[in-house]
Amino acid sequence: MIDIKELAIGDWVRHSFYEEDMRINSIDENGRIHAGANRLSVCCHIDNFEPIPITPEILEKNGFVSLEKDHLCWMLNLNGVRVFVSLYDAGTARLSLKLPCTIGFDPGSVSVINFAPIQAIHELQHTLIRLGKDIVL
């Protein structure tokens, strides 16, 4: 189940009955989500939606490159910011960013930002959108 406070307009979620990945168009004050994909449009309570797991296929489709043979570590370069996603067996992923430092005591060095573990595409989507990239399913 998804916490409604985690969602934003534009997020990808899966409708449990239709088994269809849908993009959120709006969220109302009663917990109903208006979402759609292809020719299907629905308005349902949040309980009808589930998170979309992060998979190697989705990462690859969005420009991530596998850094290991077992496809557990993926990287995407967005305007000099390297986005790393490490996948784990339990459906959990670790997200980190490496940013080049252009000012300060050591120009040319790299700052690393590690995020709390994530499990769903909409969580990854929130970070990527802020870096200027949207998720494609």
The computed structural class is mainly beta
Q: So how many helices?
A: 2
Q: What's the main sheet like?
A: 5 strands, antiparallel
Based on DSSP secondary structure assignment, what is the total number of beta strands? 10
Amino- and carboxy-terminal Cα gap: 20 Å
Large-scale geometry: elongated
SSE string, helix = H, strand = E?
EEEEEHEEEEEH
Model regions low in confidence, pLDDT < 50 over at least 5 residues: none
- Beta-strand residue fraction: 35-45%
Strand arrangement, largest sheet? 4-3-2-1-5
Whole-angstrom Rg: 17 Å
Fraction of residues in H or I helices = 10-25%
* Multimer state: single chain
Q: Averaged pLDDT, please?
A: 91
Keywords:
137 residues; mainly beta; 5-stranded antiparallel β-sheet; 2 helices; 12% helix; 39% strand
Describe the structure.
The protein has 137 residues and is mainly beta. The chain has helices spanning 56-61, 121-130; strands spanning 12-15, 20-27, 32-37, 40-45, 49-50, 65-66, 73-78, 81-87, 93-100, 110-114. Strands 4-3-2-1-5 form a five-stranded antiparallel sheet. Strands 6-7-8-9-10 form a five-stranded antiparallel sheet. The longest helix is centred in the C-terminal third of the chain and has 10 residues, at 121-130. The model has no long low-confidence stretch (mean pLDDT 91).
Can you give me a brief rundown of this structure?
The protein is mainly beta and 137 residues long. The protein has two helices and ten strands, in the order E-E-E-E-E-H-E-E-E-E-E-H.
